[in-house]
Amino acid sequence: MLPDAQEVTSVQHWTDRLFSFRVTRPQSLRFRSGEFVMIGLLGDNGKPLLRAYSIASPSWDEELEFYSIKVPDGPLTSKLQHIQPGDQIILRPKPVGTLVLDALLPGKRLWFLATGTGIAPFASLMRDPETYEKYDQVIMMHTCREKAELEYGRQLVESLKDDPLIGEMVGDKLKYYPTTTREESERMGRITDNLASGKVFEDLGIPSMSAENDRAMVCGSMAFNIDVKAVLESFGLREGANSDPLEYVVEKAFVGDGI
Length: 259
Ligand code: FAD
Ligand code: A2P
Known about the structure:
The chain has helices at 77-80, 120-125, 129-134, 151-160, 167-170, 191-196, 199-204, 222-234; strands at residues 5-15, 18-24, 36-42, 48-54, 63-69, 88-96, 109-115, 137-144, 174-180, 214-220, 248-252.
């Protein structure tokens, strides 16, 4: 029996580099949609090998969902990618993070800006009724190199319409804007470019971003986060935090890409 053990209930592989899985939820675990926890397995030395993971399921869900990269020689994910239903993982029940609704001032439109597995915290927030109570419109921009990498997010957004719990609240408030950068698809381009050029506002038929109306949450690689921040600041938005709510918040989707 592992310390802080939870049981894997399902696993789905999306590409050779991406998979999602669900685990049982510790009864005492309360979290705010958008937060992350430390999860892992026992390492070869018998000690827990833990990494930060955004909880991709909403706070009302009975189980917990995670969306993961598979790093071929990654200490954790080279093993984690082989988990099966019935296996156990370690989950430290101490949720934290900046991508929470409380860290933003009230506004009209909420933007979720993600690359790669950075969509995970928004998979949680897109399923939280509070998101739709607080905002008139929610825009999910997700960018990956190839189409197959968008599939987890695409199917999740698709499933929301018919969700018995929040389908009605979501209605047509949620706008999904997926793009690829290295494979031809319906919509293309980096999030930074589509915001800076105004293309996304034109395509969705909405006004340009302003500090008065727009709020944003950002989750991607370090390089992406830095570049998006500059674009958001050019629209007049300022970075906030739990203790100081403002117009946007940022979290790293992972560390260690050389910056
Ligand atoms: P590591 O030694 O941790 O990483 C090896 C290298 O792989 C890194 O240097 C980096 O270049 C690359 N890498 C790591 N994670 C990613 C990633 N997600 N996407 C692309 N490249 C990556 N990972 C998830 O898959 N899903 C999540 O929801 C998630 N949430 C996170 C939340 C926070 C706040 C942070 C800081 C990280 C998060 N990560 C997430 C990354 C995660 O903690 C691990 O880095 C990842 O699971 C790989 O672990 P590893 O031991 O196999 O390799
Ligand atoms: P691109 O293909 O033009 O580099 P990665 O797989 O390298 O983490 O990238 C995931 C997605 O994020 C890719 O579509 C990539 O576009 C995009 N991206 C990477 N870096 C940035 C950045 N600094 N600004 C905007 N988009 C970025």
